[in-house]
Amino acid sequence: MDMNEHLQIRTFKKTGHIEVICGSMFSGKTEELIRRIRRAEIAKQRVNVFKPKIDNRYSEFSIVSHSEQSFPSEMIENAEEILEKSFDTEVIGIDEAQFFDNNLIQVCQALADSGKRVIVAGLDQDYKAIPFEPMPQLLAVAEYITKTLAVCVICGAPANRTQRVTKSADRVLVGAENHYEARCRLHHFVQE
């Protein structure tokens, strides 16, 4: 085998992929998303970041971590808008993915199939420790998965659960420290 044949074998078509960053609240998901997006910008890649319209806790024009790191983003009503607004983008960031419906899965697949890097961050469990759609399906189709852990506010152990500390039976209750705490398996309980 000559050198040209070897190089042809080792050359791959530029393929897209899906990266999922998941974990409980206060575990650094948005910080990790911002870190990856900033690195893509340093590499001179065209980036675009989206968040659901329901998440207006800190800013309408940026994703913002609990530690106050931020990155410009666009608020959208539904996942299909990401396809429409990502034609000329190489790297797409999506924060708070649990607030989108299951159409997000097909949107991420289509973007990755078209050669784009898709980075999705969101809660993998709701406050009852039940898998939070559409995250389980995104985890199944992702090429790369990062599970972040917080610190249990009761004992300091690694925390992978989100404890709701206010009374509400709604599955979706947008909030931060005013409604939630990070808890380990031992100290997490579901209020009835």
- By CATH, the topology is Rossmann fold
Relative strand content: 25-35%
Q: What is the CATH class name?
A: Alpha Beta
Low-confidence stretches: 5-11
Can you characterise this structure?
The chain has 192 residues and is an alpha/beta fold. The chain has a single domain (13-148), classed as P-loop containing nucleotide triphosphate hydrolases (Rossmann fold, 3-Layer(aba) Sandwich). The chain has five helices and twelve strands. It has helices at 3-10, 29-42, 80-84, 103-113, 135-141; strands at residues 17-23, 47-52, 62-64, 70-72, 74-76, 91-94, 117-123, 144-148, 150-151, 158-159, 161-164, 180-183. It has a six-stranded parallel sheet, sandwiched between helices. Strands 3-4 form a two-stranded antiparallel ribbon. The protein has a two-stranded antiparallel sheet with strand order 9-10. Helix 4 links the parallel strand 6 and strand 7 (117-123). The termini are far apart.
Question: What is this structure, in a nutshell?
Answer:
With 192 residues, this protein is an alpha/beta fold.
What distinguishing features does this structure have?
single chain; 192 residues; alpha/beta; Rossmann fold; 6-stranded parallel sheet; two-stranded antiparallel sheet; 5 helices; 12 strands; 23% helix; globular
Write the layout of secondary structure elements.
Blueprint: H1 3-10, E1 17-23, H2 29-42, E2 47-52, E3 62-64, E4 70-72, E5 74-76, H3 80-84, E6 91-94, H4 103-113, E7 117-123, H5 135-141, E8 144-148, E9 150-151, E10 158-159, E11 161-164, E12 180-183
Parallel strand pairs: 1-7, 1-8, 2-5, 2-6, 6-7
Antiparallel strand pairs: 3-4, 9-10, 11-12
